[in-house]
Specification:
- With about 180 residues, this protein is α+β, with helices and mostly antiparallel strands.
- The protein folds into two domains: about 50 residues, no CATH class; about 110 residues, no CATH class.
- It is globular.
- The protein has six helices and eight strands, in the order αααααβαβββββββ.
- The protein has an eight-stranded antiparallel beta sheet, covered by helices on one side.
- β3 and β4 form a beta hairpin.
Length: about 180
């Protein structure tokens, strides 16, 4: 059993689920997250995000209001902006792993949220590949949407957010927009 836990990997989706929807995460992963001190900062980040999101009107509530009140127009696009990573400012964490041969980062992460904190996007650059994770803080499956990555206006369509978007090159995102089909 102990060997199985050592093989178990914890990723961003697991940490997100641990905070927002703990009942959906298996007990072994919960225990691993709770006991792994290197994950404390990421857990706290998502915990603070959840607390902040609970104070705002959710996107789903805004959709319900728009359905009941014709004057209230719901935008079909959501702008997400980068969060300043306190750990990066301190330069003492594991967010960037520098190669011993060169001083360029091998892996970088950047987090984006919308003003209402209904959506969170994590962009992970691994050398020549990028993974873009789209999360809903309201446990909604995000369906039939485009991701627009600025400043290069890179546009990708996704049927849902069950898997990360994988891009075959590194990107430098300054802003991300989610566009929903109506």
């Amino acid at each position: 059993m102990n060997k199985e836990k050592n093989k178990m990997k914890i990723d961003e989706q697991d940490i997100f689920t641990y905070i927002f929807f703990p009942e959906k995460l298996n007990a072994d992963k919960q225990q691993l997250i709770e006991s792994d001190k290197t994950l404390e900062e990421a857990v706290e980040f998502y915990r603070q995000l959840k607390q902040s999101a609970e104070r705002e009107l959710s996107h789903s509530l805004k959709e319900k209001i728009a359905a009941k009140i014709p004057v209230y127009k719901l935008e079909n696009a959501v702008e997400l902006y980068p969060l300043v990573d306190k750990q990066m400012l301190n330069h003492n964490g594991n967010r960037m792993a520098a190669s011993t041969k060169e001083l360029t980062p091998q892996m970088t992460t950047k987090t984006f949220v919308d003003n209402d904190k209904d959506y969170l996007i994590k962009v992970l650059n691994y050398g020549n590949e990028t993974k873009v994770f789209v999360f809903s803080t309201k446990d909604e499956v995000v369906r039939n949407f485009d991701i627009v990555i600025e400043p290069k206006n890179l546009t990708f369509h996704l049927e849902d957010n069950s898997e990360p978007l994988i891009i075959d090159h590194s990107i430098d995102a300054e802003k991300i927009q989610l566009r929903f089909d109506n």
